[in-house]
Amino acid sequence: MKPAEYYQRDRTLHPPAYAPDYKTSVSRSPRLPLISLQNSASEITGPVFGHRDIDPLDNDLVRNFPHGGDPVGERIILHGRVLDENARPVPKTLVEIWQANASGRYRHRKDTYLGALDPNFGGCGRTLTDENGYYFFRTIKPGAYPWRNWVNSWRPAHIHVSVFGAAFAQRLITQLYFEGDPLIPHCPIVKTIPDPEAIEQLIARLDLNATIPLDAIAYKFDIVLRGRRSTLFENRLEGN
Known about the structure:
CATH superfamily: Aromatic compound dioxygenase
Number of domains: 1
Number of helices: 3
Distance between the termini: 17 Å
Mean pLDDT: 88
Shape: globular
CATH architecture: Sandwich
Structural class: mainly beta
């Protein structure tokens, strides 16, 4: 199999690994230059995911937690398309999300924030894109929460997104924010991104056309895998 030609990563769009104002990057950032590796057969071949791996409720975070009650908070629709660098749809791609609940608390034993733990919300979902690269989730809009970066640091409302490519080793991770959130420009993590346009590409836009009346407000977030208009990913390696 001949490997596909990939767009090189534009490092001017991406934040530096070492950003002292984002305190945890100090201990996690590499001290030596990164090494760019060419894709091998393990990165460009299967296994891949199929419809049998997805439950019908996996993309509905309002209903997919087994307790069966209604979660608290604002119901939203998150939808969009996964596209390649030339705006072509990427079908049959696994998209996963995870998030805090409406009070800003994750369902995780290490999350000790005093926000209420919703007994009817798990905060995780997944789906496969269709033939047009389209994905769709119904969920609860997450709340902001404090974190120990500075004395009064708060994370904006955000949802973590994982995208698997054409092979199991091809996984990209990012997080999206919501249009109009006043905390976005104050977030130390967001501030590490040097390009304002790259920040804009991480913001899900209000989409009243896709809103479900009397049920859920919609936000649209397209995921672009490569190229000059690519979505910013947290774990992207050069050449991928």
